[in-house]
Amino acid sequence: MSEPILELRGINKSFGPVHVLHDIDLVVNPGEVTALVGDNGAGKSTLVKCIAGIHPTDSGEVLFNGQPVQIRGPRDAADLGIEVVYQDLALADNLDIVQNMFLGRERTKAGLLDETDMEQAARKTLASLSVRTVKSVRTQVSSLSGGQRQTVAIAKAVLWNSKVVLLDEPTAALGVAQTRQVLDLVRRLAEQGLGVVLISHNMNDVFEVADRIACLYLGRMAAVVSSKEVTHGQVVELITAGRSGDLGIARPEAATI
Questions:
Q1: Would strands 243-244 and 247-248 be described as parallel, antiparallel, or unpaired?
Q2: What region holds the ABC transporter domain (predicted)?
Q3: What are the structural domains, with CATH classification, of the chain?
Q4: Contact predicate 119/138, CB 8 Å
């Protein structure tokens, strides 16, 4: 196994008296999809926002490419190569695909927007991900389907030479065909050597694309397991009870938020 791209050690996070994350350990490897699963309130979103620099951690260590790093804000995360695709996608409906992909990071030439360069880069990125559902990079986002929007949001994330991509419920509210397109895209990200973290409630999606499954229970990491070595039922038990057979937290009834 190659060196992890991203490693979390003993991450804790509280909001006032509420202890949301308890000593979280997580490893993200290049070329792998790690699914992050857990019930509502388990701490998935908080953990992702800590990685993205939106929430500062209270204690613990973050390593990137084996080196300790400080992520004090979203800019620090982006500079390292960590990109997040949130569930709301954060796309501007009134702009086209190119304008969305470069929003806030526009390329200029002689003081003017370099539209040609940005358009070529957008086409190249979509082609590298084998995206064939988008006919023109100048299509306005408001006219795209849900699956196409998700594709644009993911392409936007990988445009910046990212090394780790975190996807928050990428197949939520998508139809069967669109879900298939997005799952294929998730696997292609891993095949290109990126470390992918997939947050999902859909166990079928998780088992289809994930190499490893990290199961959160009441803010604690119950277990990180290979998707090939566990069943759907075992994962459900881990995220609802914190334990399944020999796997999980020793005494889940003692775990509190």
A1: antiparallel
A2: 6-243
A3: 6-90+162-254 (3.40.50.300)
A4: yes
